[in-house]
Amino acid sequence: MIVLIACGVATEAHAADPAGCKAVRMAEPGWNDLAFTTGVAHVLFEALGYEPKSDVLGINVIYEGMKNNDLDVFLGYWDPAMVTYYKPYKEDGSVETLKLNLVGAKYTFAVPAYVWDAGVRDFKDLHKFADKFGRKMYGIEPGSNQLMMDAIADPTLELASWEVVESSEAGMLSEVGYKIKEKQFIVFQGWAPHPMNVSYDLRYLTGGDKFYGPDLGAATVSTQTRKGYAAACPNVTKLLTNLTFNVALENAGMGYLINDGMAPTAAGRKAIAANPALLETWLAGVTTFDGQPALAAVKAKLGL
């Protein structure tokens, strides 16, 4: 009898988090990288027995939502791009930064590899090949290319006769694809993570620190939660702390959204299926909502 009771106690499962943590309320601003990473989180939480929900909202609305206890989790704090947005919530303590989830992001001028090989490796090299570039650089939507215009206006770069061709992300990349096919020179707004880094053999130019910041416009992305959430929902928080990404994974995942037209959760499932070893890290020390081992449960749910 004593043995039976002991066995029963050993196998009894308890909820990993309080009932109020079962609904995990997330949001993202409609950017493809954040749609993908939030989709991955959604798939994992659902497989663990939670009830995740994600909305597409403006950045200010996301922060106000966390401050007002209407949202729990935001996977997309880009630093330095969002420093100004986050500042008041950091100062009043209503939103907490939990963990870096991506390093290696960047945003600056890019050229095809053959242009790099020809000698265009730095901002200061552009004017030397002005005729080959047609004195043009290619940007995205109007209003999003000021840094390119600032570079043209900088007398030290000798680009005064150049112009910025504005269109859209899709329009710019269509031109990039054409120029690469024809082996013509082109310089454009490049960034990572993005599928362009998989679709094309690109190089990023040095020398743009004054405009884009150091290390090729380097940025990090962090996971944030509303005040007190980490302590209130420790199992959710353990997963969020483990949930880190890399540029290659996000390049591929964003490709599922942009090129294949997948929904974020479908893209998340596909990425997990293609990289099942990541589950070992992501689910270390995590349980299902009802207290069972996470790794076996998630693999079973996802058919892995």
From TrEMBL:
This is Glycine/betaine ABC transporter substrate-binding protein. CDD domains: PBP2_ChoX. Residues 23-271 form the ABC-type glycine betaine transport system substrate-binding domain. Pfam families: OpuAC. InterPro entries: ABC_choline_sub-bd, ABC_Gly_betaine_transp_sub-bd. One of its GO terms (biological process) is choline transport. GO terms for cellular component: ATP-binding cassette (ABC) transporter complex; periplasmic space. It comes from Mesorhizobium hungaricum. GO terms for molecular function: choline binding; transmembrane transporter activity.
